[in-house]
Amino acid sequence: MTTKPTRNLVLAKVREVFPHHSPSDVRAILDLYGVEPYERERERVQLDILKLSEGDIDKLRKVVGLAKRDYRDVIVAAEYTNLNRRPTDD
């Protein structure tokens, strides 16, 4: 059994993935995901968004947009890497 992702883990990953950016700026973009009731598993998806962004602010915005349309696409791309498809390749 895995532990549920927490907000503290998300905040730590923000600093790790974007060490040269303002954490509050990165959080502002990242927190666009998870406001709507249908935007589920906020912390998990935000961690996946950070992973897919690869420390690039433009990619971060793009992946947040993808998550807002269908968060499952982001989960698959980040967590099932053996499928060799990433939504940022489109």
Architecture overview:
- With 90 residues, the protein is mostly helical.
- The chain has one domain (7-89).
- It has 5 helices and no strands.
- It has helices spanning 7-17, 23-30, 42-53, 57-69, 71-79.
- The N and C termini lie far apart (33 Å).
- The mean pLDDT is 92.
Question: What is shown here, in short?
Answer:
With 90 residues, this protein is mainly α. The protein has one domain (7-89). It has helices at residues 7-17, 23-30, 42-53, 57-69, 71-79.
User: Total number of helical segments?
Assistant: 5
What's the assembly state of these chains?
Answer: single chain
Output the helix-strand order. Answer: HHHHH
Please report the distance between the alpha carbons of the first and last residues.
Answer: 33 Å
Number of strands: 0
Give the percentage of residues in beta strands: under 5%
Radius of gyration: 12 Å
Helix content: 55-70%
Structural shape: globular
**Class of secondary structure makeup:** mainly alpha
Total domain units: 1
Mean pLDDT: 92
Biggest sheet, in brief?
Answer: none
- Poorly predicted sequence stretches spanning 5 or more consecutive residues: none
